[in-house]
Design a protein that fits this description.
The chain is an alpha+beta fold and 284 residues long. The chain contains 3 helices and 17 strands.
């Protein structure tokens, strides 16, 4: 298209080629400059509106608040489209559609408008035994231009905290008390709660304890005994599962040392010897 431009020659019926009068020669610097100027103008028009999705930090049990900030840099624009949320498994399988929000708003020049969608935190515990994400899909168009914005964001809550309370050190062969603490972050009961405590160097046998039910926002506290079986630093690993949470883990590093009483005596002897040496030095 536009490779040649012709007209009728003056004073005759022959064809006159006037291509060079209307466009730059093919492959010339002037042609490239003209194309660049055209593309730049088009891009400037297409990107009149900025779309930004703020980072989402979500704690387990809390509602998810998803936002799209729309900033208009040029004349007033109308934004139309839709935001959809779905519950999906960790493999990407859609479990169910959660909600849809139609978008139809005007954004004045130099202004920012925010579109918000809120999903209840209970959606993460609707599917027992499955790790659930919420997928937000955004499709927005700037009316009267060719600019469009589409984005997908997967949100998973940070897992609840499982606290393991134990001494930092335990003597070889000594038996001490440790405790697992967990607070149900949900406003509903957690059922089929089970604790699994493991460590070959700190337990004679792994502990599997069936808790049963933990009430809404209630605290679970489970005491147990650990034993220093092997010298060195070892990890005590605790896992909690339920109908609402697939797996919550916690761990604690415990160092198994020689008999603690012996260590105290040894430190006292070292201190006494140091004082004797210092006193002898000054007497000389």
């Amino acid at each position: 298209v536009g490779q040649t431009i012709s007209t009728k020659a003056v004073g005759s019926h022959s064809r006159e080629d006037v291509t060079d009068q209307y466009k730059h020669p093919e492959g010339s610097d002037w042609e490239r400059r003209a194309l660049y100027a055209g593309y730049k103008e088009l891009l400037d028009e297409v990107h009149d509106v900025d779309f930004q999705i703020p980072e989402i930090v979500n704690k387990f049990g809390e509602d998810v608040v998803f936002k799209v900030n729309i900033t208009n840099k040029a004349r007033q624009h109308r934004i139309r489209g839709r935001i959809t949320s779905e519950a999906v498994s960790y493999t990407g399988r859609v479990l169910r559609e959660v909600s849809q929000v139609p978008v139809d708003l005007k954004v004045n020049k130099g202004k920012t408008e925010t579109v918000t969608m809120t999903v209840e935190g209970s959606v993460f515990s609707e599917f027992p035994g499955t790790k659930v994400y919420v997928r937000f899909s955004v499709v927005l168009a700037v009316h009267g231009t060719s600019q469009m914005f589409s984005e997908e964001v997967n949100v998973a809550p940070s897992p609840p905290e499982l606290e393991v309370i134990a001494p930092k050190q335990v003597g070889l062969g000594d038996e001490v008390l440790a405790t697992v603490k967990f607070t149900n972050p949900l406003p509903v009961e957690m059922e089929d709660v089970t604790l699994n405590i493991e460590s070959d160097e700190l337990l004679h046998d792994d502990i599997i304890h069936t808790v049963g039910t933990v009430g809404p926002n209630a605290e679970l506290s489970y005491p147990f005994k650990l034993v220093g079986l092997k010298l060195g630093r070892h990890n005590l690993v605790v896992g909690l599962g339920s109908d609402k949470v697939v797996l919550v883990t916690g761990e604690k590093e415990v160092e198994v040392v020689e008999e603690v009483v012996h260590q105290v005596i040894l430190m006292a002897l070292c201190l006494w010897r140091s004082r004797v040496l210092i006193a002898t030095y000054y007497q000389r």
